[in-house]
Amino acid sequence: MKKVIVDYTKLTTNILNLLVKKYPDGYDYDDIITFQNVEGLTINAIEVSTEDTAYFVKINTKLERTMANYVKGEGTFNSKEIGLASEY
Q1: pLDDT digits (tens, 9 = 90+) for 41-82
Q2: Which of 1, 18, 31, 49 is the most buried (most CB within 10 A)?
Q3: Do 79 and 85 form a contact (C-beta atoms < 8 A)?
Q4: Which domain does 52 fall in, by range?
Q5: CB 9, CB 62: distance < 8 Å
Q6: Is residue 86 helix, strand or coil?
Q7: Is residue 88 situated within a structural domain?
């Protein structure tokens, strides 16, 4: 399985859909995975997966806000509108 670390600035609609489906009420401390990347930096992330890829989405307050707003907005998300990349 391919493993991808995703920063908030690289969030896509597909990954956001996976996040709100897996964590509809937000995520808890127990959901957070802590690991070191190849550069030796400590990463805190939550995991979502597709059939062939595991995405580790870095945790920050903007991610929490985006997930909450996405749920409230009934699925609307425009990555360009908030300055996010369309690809990860």
Answers
A1: 999 999 999 999 999 999 977 777 777 777 776 555 555 444
A2: 18
A3: yes
A4: 2-72
A5: no
A6: coil
A7: no
Residues contacting residue 40 through CB under 8 Å, at least 6 positions apart: none
Residue 85 in domain? no
Q: Which amino acid is at 62?
A: K
Q: CA 17 to CA 48: how far, in whole Å?
A: 10
Report the side by side order of strands in the sheet with 33-36: 2-6, 53-58, 42-49, 33-36
Query: What secondary structure, in 3-state letters, does 14-78 show?
Result: HHHHHHHHHCCCCCCHHHCEEEECCCCCEEEEEEEECCCEEEEEECCHHHHHHHHHHHHCCCCCC
